[in-house]
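Changelog excerpt

This revision adds worked examples to the README so contributors can see how folded entries look when concatenated. The first example is reproduced verbatim below.
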Amino acid sequence: MFKFIIFTFSFIFSSSFGGEIITSQNYTDSSQLLQVLLNSINIPMHPYIDFGNTAWVLTATALVLLMTIPGLAFFYGGLVKRKNVLSVLMQCLIALSVISVIWVVFGYSLTFSPGKGALAGFIGSFDWAFLNHVGFEPSPYTAAQPYARIPHLAFMIFQCMFAVITPALIIGAFAERMKFSAYLIFIILWSIFVYMPVAHWLWAQDGWLLKMGAVDFAGGIVVHINAGIAALMTTLFIGKRKNHLHSHPHNLTFTVLGTGLLWFGWFGFNAGSALAADGLAANAFVVTNTSGAIAAITWVILDWIFIKRPTILGVATGAIAGLAAITPASGFVDIYGALGIGIFASLICYIFVIIIKPRLSYDDALDAFGVHGVAGIWGTFAVGLYATPLVQSAYKGLASGSLHLLKVQSIAIISTIVYSMIVTTIIYWLINLTVGVRVDEAEESTGLDISEHNERAYTIIE
């Protein structure tokens, strides 16, 4: 009906002013039709709140929240010993609570508000603290829809869920051996001094990496590389778990449940980053599912080849690797790119988790670096290989004949690795010098559920 009205008016105006009749044949979005019509009669169009786009982004926000609680909580919780499962659930739940408050007080402002002076490209200001100037007006941030936007508040809360899950991912590195008090201080400081600056670099309008041309559609750099490198550093500093070589998942049923919830939530993570219910969101949805699926299949094949039987843990790990790898690329690649990204995500992560980790003998307990960090690096690099103008016309990868995107993506990867490595190290050592990071040997043997929280997940005797 809306297109019929536009066509009727376009016929009237074109007849009156000698212009060309506008049809809906080449326009699948009503806002595009309206824009073309208004341009044809020299009426400027301004950003407005689109109800459909708003509904989708709010739904996507809930999906991303689901990834942390209960998705990641169950995924990680099933992989630890049963005497530590509550500590993991607690760490995920408190991350949601603490980071949500920090975000609305000043975190969103530091990340997305315009910076000032020489630091403008590196960090925002406090102009939007306590959500000042963040209300019902159209968001200043958009993807492929310059006019049909969402409320600024909707964009803010959507981004909040990314800020929540990123430090929670790092739990996988130091699981079963970090003090809860140290963890609390760590996620607060890390979010402020690592997550917020890196997110500003790539997602704020004046971010230095964004201005250079680097892209990160849904968090391959900001979330996965950033958290993955922090996970590696904390793993190296905190040391190995007691008897870590004999540590086995206590409940793979939880892990599979968590995998399903993460996969489900990832559609909000990636497709929601289109910030509209449009073709770009649909593409991100399709390539996300495809990459996760082919990566899961690839890991099963590798298990079959090297250990002679497929494993449910392998399927889950492969799926997460594929989903993490497609995250930065989901708004830039088509189905061919998704297949390539998913296959190589499993291959590369399998090498890091199954071969490199045992040989180097570091205890990345739940493979936060080996899966999220490594997959994030590969996926970000792959944007420079597979980006196609068929998805977004402004972006071309090496397969489409351009080397520029590959260069700037490499700069973004290296910059994030170095920054996250250095600042995470400083934060860790400051906490270790003050409150101490690791529980003592007796508390670790007892389990963090009892020693840190005085609770049990199960009533059976250990």
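The second example, added in the same revision:
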Amino acid sequence: MASRLINCSVEEITLDMPVKVKFERIAEDFILPCFQPVACTEK
């Protein structure tokens, strides 16, 4: 499975960092599950 970490810089990444899934449409027929830190979703 391919994925990526979004909405955070490399410096902010930590082991066991809580993340939340966010689905992004990459193409008409393809949706990629991406992950962003939970702290970004609490704003």
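Reviewer comment on example two: DSSP finds one helix and three strands in the chain. Helices lie at 38-41.
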